[in-house]
Every structure is written in C-alpha cells, then in structure tokens.
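User: Quick sanity check before I run a bigger batch. Here is a single chain. Can you write out its predicted 3D structure?
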Amino acid sequence: MGINKELLEILACPKCKGDLKLTHSGDGLICDTCKLKYPIKDDIPVMLIDEAVRIS
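Assistant: Done. Predicted structure follows.
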C-alpha cells in the first residue's frame, strides 16, 4: 500500500520541524537537516525521535 502522498506532504520532522522525504526503498522517512531516518512499520510512520536511526 505505501504511505499516502498527501500525508507525506504534511508530515514534519519531530526534532527540527523540517521536511521529510521518503527513502528509495519506501521503508522510512528521512530528515536531511537532522540526518535521521524515521521507520515506516506496517505502512505507519513511526515519528518518535527515540526510534529514529542516524544516517551518514
């Protein structure tokens, strides 16, 4: 099913309130400012800072 495009447009990074983009594989949302990846589990974005993974 994947994440709804309209939902993606209104979601913001919980840490910096910046824009998020979908990963190429569709398994997470990336904040370029914070360098964090928020996972998507069962088509639901997990928008918790503690659950985010630092990316390089």
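Residues 36 and 54 are 5 Å apart (CA to CA).

User: Great, the batch can go ahead then.
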